[in-house]
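Hey, can you fold this one?
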Amino acid sequence: MEAMKSFLQNALKSLGLGPRGNQTDDVDAGHADLAQKNYPAALKKFNRSAKEGDAAGQIQVGHFYRGGLGIRPDLSKAVHWYRLAAVQGNAIAQFSLGVIYNNGEGIAQDFVEAVYWYQLAAIQGNANSQSNLGLMYEKGQGVLQDYAQALNWYRLAAVQGHVVAQFNMGLMHEKGEGVTQDFAEALQWYRLAALQGHGEAQGNLGVMYAKGEGVVQDYKTAHMWFNIAAAAGDSVATKNRDAMTQNMNAQQISEAQKMARDWQAGRILPG
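Sure. Predicted structure:
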């Protein structure tokens, strides 16, 4: 990974690119208009800044054309403005281009191109790009499948608090992909994602407590996590919660339900 990092850093340097364009007064004023939902006024100011070569203005114009804020969506124009900001080293523009090529939004889907832009943003510490790059390595899209690389990129995003990366770290440790299978480690990553409201992580925590994987078997805590995930609409968690009651008495179910209510009330959960 260090070799790739060095290569991409040198690529940026060879183009004479800084980390981001300078933000102008027009961009600040445009954000003020945007907060008031005065889209025409905001776009006018962002356009003026963008045409002066300011990456901060260019990416905002790209957002307008991509999202159709007060104008007709135009992905080709969005890509044009994102690219101008991206080649100046703007990580958000690079990430946006990565997503567009990854999903094939208005253009031909191109995983190799998506990886290229994700990498440029990822080495600047953009957590969204790091997480998406991890997924590309995990699936082998645009790059050779490489679980070790996937794990490295997920970890960089996960330690920044990226909830999807935390969940995927849990999955990889649970399955033993790119790392020795470690239920206790999986549990810790699932817990971090679950505390941020990630439904699948909450459901997976329930399974691990129910089975006693990486933790002492605990039906009440399993029921609690299934209940929390079920309340958010997870149908599998609903089935698991109801199945758990077959192994619990009325008092245990009542206590587990209270634990779930404590979660919703923001009280500290048991370890």
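Residues 250-264 form the longest helix (15 residues). Let me know if you want another pass with a different chain boundary.
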